[in-house]
Automatic annotation (TrEMBL):
Residues 160-351 form the AAA domain. InterPro entries: AAA_dom (IPR025669), DNA_Partitioning_ATPase (IPR050678), P-loop_NTPase (IPR027417). It comes from the Bacteria. This is Cellulose biosynthesis protein BcsQ. Residues 1-32 are annotated as: Disordered. Transmembrane segments: none annotated.
Amino acid sequence: MDMAEAAGRKTVGRGRAEIRKAGSPKEPLAPLPPYFNISPDAALAELEAPLTTAGFAEIAEACTRGRDDLASRGLDEEGRKSLRLFSTWEITRYLIPVATAHFRRVLKANPDLPQGISETEGGAKWFTLDEVLRLRAHFAAEGSKAKEYRPYRPAGLPAKLVAVANFKGGVGKTSTAAHLAMSAALDGYKVLVIDLDSQGSMTSIFGGRIADEWGTVFPLLARHYAGHLQAENRARVSRGDPPVPMDETLTEAQKIRAGDLIAKTHWPNIDLIGAQLNLYWAEFQIPVWRMQGRGWKLWDALTDVLAEDGVLDRYDVIFIDTPPALGYLTINGLAAADILLVPLGASFLEFDSTGRFFDMLHSTFRSIEEGENIAARALGREELSFEWDAVRAVLTRFDGAQQGEMAALMQAYMGRTMSSVRQDFTALIGQAGEQVNGIYEADYRDFNRDTYIRGRETFDATYAAFKRLLVGIWRREELAAKAAAE
């Protein structure tokens, strides 16, 4: 083999490859990708033993310890989450529409009002949210009638239920629901959050501790079915047929009311019906009940029990966080909702998935309507027709520099269904998530002031778009009620 032939051969050495041609200058050797030259023996040495079923329990336990550690960073000395204080600057900028100087004059003239606390001599005053709500009530009673110290809320109308849903995970469903709940609370509304997701992320955000499925909505759904079964049994007995026995679960569920499940949170005007892993059992139990009682209207279960227990009269807005799947729990949440919000990212896959989600919603609810209306027409009864006051898709985690064209395309196809407000991703969002807090729970002193203001702006805009829906729907109902009374 001559020198020219040798120079044209591939040579390999020290993890690098190079083809050298006769007479060509020598070039630097590029490193090979990391998936070449993996030693089987070295790979074996790094490998752990095969995992058994018990190994899942060990991983789950480790995750639980880590979760508790992370969550504990937002807890007080008694192990409960506590809400931060709000400064005079923050109150007058975001919560009560008055000038800072006027705010201070009002406090000085009314020593019976909360005066706040200062961390340093002559420093800024800080207030609890309870105190802010008291101050807002004072300004609403004594201040200018031209200013909105309290949000619009027609008397005599029930709470509005808002479901946040999408069967694709990772779209910001729970964080959107949580931040809207916090926004509404800061705005002065009385809020209830219902967690239907057995993962319990919403429950964790609001510091809930649920022992088992009996602390979730499960007994309310069971009670609704028990009521149906009792009615069916009365009909059976009247026909001379034996009744279907009530099991212990249904008997116990009949004793439970929604008020037994509603827990206070660290927000004075946000309450919670939480979730935990055992709630997933409902996805297996509900179809059993449906087989036993085919006339049971499971889609009415959540709405009926909330109305029967007076919950719709005690709150202004009820947010329902649904599982990332179109199961029985999600159907209950969607059927109960007056407003449906569908978060998604500005990507082809999420757009495609969301389209399939809407298609599945159509198929599911059309199937329920058709099944019910066959009997309704035969009996001369009013036909079933599901209706939502408003449905909006909401872009989350939006990056205008990278996703503007995609967002515009989605807007063009979805039209008014797509909210024109796009929820940007900012540094504040990421940092708040690391601390297991919502954006509104973050202390602005932990951030650059401009970063905090920008982070709030995107969520404030999302809430403003939602509030326009809420106010418009209430106004429509208010005017309809007045017209009906005339």
